[in-house]
Amino acid sequence: MELQRLIFSFFNAEVAARYWPDILYGMWVTAYLGAAVIAAGLAAGLGLAMLRSFHFRPASFAIVVFADAFRALPPLVVIIVLFFAFPYVGLAMSAFTATWLALSLVLAAFAEEIFWAGILSVPKGQTEAARSTGMSRLQTLAYVVIPQAVRLTIPPLTNRMIAITKGTALGSVVAVHEIIYYASSGASEAGNPTPLTLGALAYLAIFLPVVLASRWIETRFAWKR
Amino acid sequence: MLKGIDLAVAQGELVFIIGPSGSGKSTLLRCCNRLEEPTSGSVVVDGTDITRPDVDINRVRQKIGMVFQQFNLYPHLDALGNVTLALRKVVGKTRTEAESLGLRALTRVGLAEKAKAYPNELSGGQQQRVAIARALALEPRILLFDEPTSALDPELVGSVLKVMRELRESGMTMVVVSHEMEFARAAADRVVFMDHGAILESGRPEKIFARPEHARVAEFVATISRHA
């Protein structure tokens, strides 16, 4: 009896048939938004960490303030501020843009710290050797330090990337049409939580390959000193 | 901290710098390519005062090779990659040109067959020879060695010294910070003894080792020889 009710509530074939196209579209939005966040967040984080490695005090200070602030703020708060408060200063943006920007800033803050730790972990002798052959600071970073730093940062970075991509669910608050938006609105419309089950399956479909790929990358990039 | 250093190295000369730890040997060497910035004074290499503010230090450094105690090979590149990186990125050679020059440098240190080996697959002595090849590939006017054999197991020291001896015979100008007294005796044109950031005494190796003017030098040489 109980099992039947469970199946009716969460695995209702009729409800699933009605809502899966919506969920599929939400999956596309989640994946697209997630990819855009990862691209922007990682690029910004790496850029900031590189800038910080030049040890120019005012820049380093600003970067640390940024990283600490955006690691401390809940992403939801950032989304809400960008979407609801910024129009008052003439900076209106779509729900999608606000979510993308907010999550990118948060990922950039975490990624900067991770890349920075990676850069610090590369022995000073590496930089000295490169500079002694006439390489500039930027060349040394690009060809000697970053390639070594990145290997060490892959495990913490993948965790961050997965966490932040799941944060796209927060976009449902400002009505970004991603998985959770369709799953929860579908569930209340149908009076049945089966769309949430579909949503969970959609997340698994997106993230299991990512997790497996990260494991593969970790073993591939591992190398002995 | 260095004080009142006045040292001229002639072309083709091999100068050995010895002295107790903390005497400023490495600092002096690192001032020669400005890994360490002198607060005053000047360093002239091949006619260029490299301490002048308008000097392009990256350009100057191509002509001043440096070999480090810890080798400092790039672990993410194979031996040839280590040797060719600056040729490609700094000098602007194509990959093919750089690889042929790189192989020639590896051949000079006797490691052409290890071109595709990564640093972790090489012994300490081989790593240091790759590091020498990395400096050599840029055809430097002078080579600086900062304790090149101190991190090596005793049985691997010989292979590195052999390469250094061959370089000396080919006329390379070299400044070497090292405690390899046997090598200094055999190959050095001049030995410089440093203490407390200053040059206390310098001269031919046979003089410094056998008849030093300062008791401090005699004492140091005796201690080192006992341990060698």
Label this structure with key terms.
heterodimer; A: 225 residues; mainly alpha; MetI-like fold; 9 helices; 81% helix; B: 228 residues; alpha/beta; Rossmann fold; 2 domains; six-stranded mixed beta sheet; 8 strands; 42% helix
Task: Summarize the structure in short.
By secondary structure, chain A is mainly alpha-helical.
Report on this structure:
The complex is a heterodimer of chains A (225) and B (228). By secondary structure, chain A is mainly alpha-helical. Chain A has a single domain (18-221), classed as MetI-like fold (Orthogonal Bundle), CATH 1.10.3720.10. Chain A is 81% helix and 0% strand. Chain A contains nine helices and no strands. In chain A, helix 2 packs antiparallel against helix 7 (137-166), helix 5 (95-121) crosses helix 7 and helix 7 packs antiparallel against helix 9 (194-221). The longest helix of chain A has 40 residues, at 13-52. Chain B is an alpha/beta fold. Chain B has two domains: 1-63 and 140-228, Rossmann fold, CATH 3.40.50; 75-139, no CATH class. Chain B is built from nine helices and eight strands. Chain A binds chain B through residues 123, 125-126, 128-136, 139, 143-144, 147-148, 151, 223-225, and chain B through 33, 35, 58-62, 64-66, 68, 70, 72-76, 85-86, 89-90, 118, 120, 131, 134-135, 138.
Could you give the topology of this structure?
The complex is a heterodimer of chains A (225) and B (228).
Chain A: H1 2-10, H2 13-52, H3 57-72, H4 75-85, H5 95-121, H6 124-132, H7 137-166, H8 179-190, H9 194-221
Helix pairs in contact in A: 2-3, 2-5, 2-7, 2-8, 2-9, 3-5, 4-5, 5-7, 6-7, 7-9, 8-9
Chain B: E1 14-18, H1 25-31, E2 44-45, E3 48-49, H2 57-62, E4 64-67, H3 79-91, H4 95-108, H5 124-136, E5 142-146, H6 154-169, E6 173-177, H7 181-187, E7 190-195, E8 198-203, H8 205-210, H9 215-227
Parallel strand pairs in B: 1-6, 1-7, 4-5, 5-6
Antiparallel strand pairs in B: 2-3, 7-8
Helix pairs in contact in B: 3-4, 3-5, 4-5, 5-6
